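Exercise: predict the fold of this chain.
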Amino acid sequence: MNEAVSRDLFARDVEVLRNLTALRKWTILQAEYPTIDVIFTEEGKAPLRVRVVAANWNSDPAVFELLEPDGRAIPRVP
């Protein structure tokens, strides 16, 4: 995919995500092409940090990393 188009789609999708964070207890730590890094929190549950890296946003599969809130890799998924 053309990088300019990919960047435009990324920016559009980040705005949608920003709207969702206003409704939920989510925190965007990074939203700079091609990476989105978000912490999801909910009362009574352990926070989950997810980093998504997609060099060709919207055309190639993204890489998802499940992380501890401090950025360390989760040793095992429950």
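Check your answer against the key: The two ends are 36 Å apart (CA to CA).
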